[in-house]
Amino acid sequence: MISIKTKITDLFNVKYPIIQAGMVWVSGWKLASAVSNNGGLGLIGSGSMKPELLREHIRDCFSATDKPFGVNIPLLRGDAEDLVNVTIEEGVKIVFSSAGNPKKFIDILKENNITVVHVVPSVKFGLKAEAAGCDTVVGEGVEAGGHNGIDEITTLALIPQLVDSLNIPVIAAGGIADGRGILAALSLGADGVQMGTRFATTVESSAHPNYKKKVIEASDSDTILAFKKIGLVRMIKNEFADKAKVAETEGWKEEELRELLGKKREMMGIFEGNETEGKLEAGQSSGLVKEILTVESLFKKLLKEIEEASNRNDKIIKD
Amino acid sequence: MISIKTKITDLFNVKYPIIQAGMVWVSGWKLASAVSNNGGLGLIGSGSMKPELLREHIRDCFSATDKPFGVNIPLLRGDAEDLVNVTIEEGVKIVFSSAGNPKKFIDILKENNITVVHVVPSVKFGLKAEAAGCDTVVGEGVEAGGHNGIDEITTLALIPQLVDSLNIPVIAAGGIADGRGILAALSLGADGVQMGTRFATTVESSAHPNYKKKVIEASDSDTILAFKKIGLVRMIKNEFADKAKVAETEGWKEEELRELLGKKREMMGIFEGNETEGKLEAGQSSGLVKEILTVESLFKKLLKEIEEASNRNDKIIKD
After folding, report:
1. How far off is chain B from A203, nearest CA to CA, in Å?
2. Residue B141: which of A156, A229, A306 has the nearest Cβ?
3. CB contact under 8 A, B154 and A161
4. What digits encode the pLDDT tens for the residues B253-301?
5. Which of A70, B100, B106, B227 has a C-alpha 20 to 30 A away from that of B146?
6. CA atoms within 13 A on the CB side of A126
């Protein structure tokens, strides 16, 4: 089996620079610990948790693995400070922040010797995260599932531009679901990858079986971007997504869009498995996901694919 | 210097699997022959030419290079048949078709021993092109400049899915402007790349100096996608693009959009250099383009970058 050593494996003290995205309703202690136990970096997604539930998941994760893991915290949440405090109190040493200004909590996180990573959709926000004191950034392209940046920059275009603009290492996210994508990201200058959709479709993911089935059935064309005016999101096409598309095409106003979106659509889709009316957040890499695997099998598969793609490059390109 | 050998270098009998996109107002005989003379595959972009002008460019290209070159033909043009006939009559042996059904002219092209390549934005259209008898496809992601597919699939997500679905080789396009991007595309399983924006900003490109300047000044966030209802197009932000964005957000109707678009906006922007009211078609890779180079210097730079990125991968990944 291959070994991979980058600034990201050094920074997090993990075997492989493969990070499982912190996702709502998908990544509790079970998925995060499985990823960490297999040599990647697992993240508990606190976006769908109240602070006390997060505390339970952190404790369970510490029981399930002695390897490093982290917590993803969406900074725009009203109770983000409580999530941050729980994370610090429970002794987690890695925080991925998203959706908000990383400056807000950087001082308290760094005082507690926490490695801080911010998810950014463009060079502009990458520079801001670096200036704020983040240790690394996730550059996330618009092919990613869930929330996206308004400039809709793709991973392939974003990563080399981030790498050229920042001094801190860059993790690539969006559109990556197999070893070929990982090798492509490294080729662009990234030091690691973060994958969401692929990990959401593992045995250990707490997503509903209906959600996993929809990802597996999806082709390359089966996701849409919608809700540009109130927070761009990528999801799998279904009846709800069709309505969102009509709303987008017809130029609905913000309040109309908020009413259509309603509340807890993610929970309905991802956790409760409502295939028609739920918001099934997933990326364009859904078309690459053909089966539900255990995290252990997935890691073996990814490493084999990286090796194969790497050997193919060596065959094609000669000195 | 490295050598690169793939199914695409074999198919076109070229040294490097690097194709210069056929672009309106940019790629006449001068650019195409320079690319072919430097070991890539140059394409004359017939999209902005009347049939008799195309004939002149083909003749001039044959005078300027003894290497293979091709012609790009947009099949939706009213006089596409005339462009096809001129191409056949003048003895060009490679045709890249786009924007339309490749079935339309495949028989006459194949009867004349012409290698036919179709540009596709999704797996669905890739399968159609293969079934029609195309020799290879260009899989073009939504980060590309100019016209794009409605499903807005990115290069990173599209290429491995095309590779898995087709038996013919795949050329990757969209978001690629340096050696890192080329190596990333090969890692995804592509056998070659097509680059537009980067070649549009060479000395030999017939784009107006103002257009080249705008590309060089652009950051990762400086292009937008607009005109979804009448033909999705990516262009650099300017006053015209701002109006197009407002139209998009407000959900304007098709006829209103057509009126805003008007006629010959590409010519105004790319050829005449109207920076504010012209349509400056360019991709998200604009942010990677920092200088105007000769095609010769660009090829040297690309090959060096591929080598560097490849060496970095070899350092990171060990057996």
Report:
1. 23
2. A156
3. no
4. 999 999 999 989 999 999 999 999 999 999 999 999 999 999 999 999 9
5. B106
6. 28
> Which residue is associated with the tokens 């998941």?
A57
Alpha helix positions (H), chain A: 7-12, 29-37, 51-64, 80-89, 103-111, 123-132, 155-165, 179-187, 197-200, 209-217, 239-249, 254-261, 265-266, 295-316
Using a CB-CB distance cutoff of 8 angstroms, which residues of chain B are in contact with residue A152?
225
> Which residues of chain A lie closer than 8 angstroms to B306, CB-CB?
317
Of 3.90.1010.10, 3.50.50.60, 3.20.20.70, 3.40.50.2300, the CATH number of A7-207+291-316 is 3.20.20.70
Residue entry with tokens 């971007």: A225
Q: Enter the ipTM.
A: 0.97
Which listed CATH number (3.20.20.70, 3.10.180.10, 3.40.190.10, 3.50.50.60) goes with B7-206?
3.20.20.70
A22-65 pLDDT per residue, tens: 999 999 999 999 999 999 999 999 999 999 999 999 999 999 99
Among candidates A156, A180, A249 on the partner chain, residue whose Cβ is nearest the Cβ of B155 = A156
| Beta-carbon separation of B189 and A307 below 8 A | no
**Contact between A145 and A119 (Cβ < 8 Å):** no
Q: Is B284 in Cβ contact with A154 (below 8 Å)?
A: yes
The whole-angstrom separation of Cα A90 and Cα B180 is 41
| CA distance to partner chain A, nearest, from residue B211 (Å) | 20
List, in sequence order, every residue forming a beta bridge with B19; answer none if it has no partner: B41, B194
Amino acid, single-letter form, for residue A189 = G
Query: Please, how many CA atoms are within 13 Å of residue B278, restricted to the half-sphere of its CB?
Result: 19
Please report, as a single letter, which amino acid is at residue B109. Answer: L
Indicate if the alpha-carbon torsion angle A200, A81, A102, A64 is positive or negative. Answer: negative
Tell me if the pTM is above 0.95: yes
Report chain A residues whose CB lies below 8 A from the CB of B237.
Answer: none
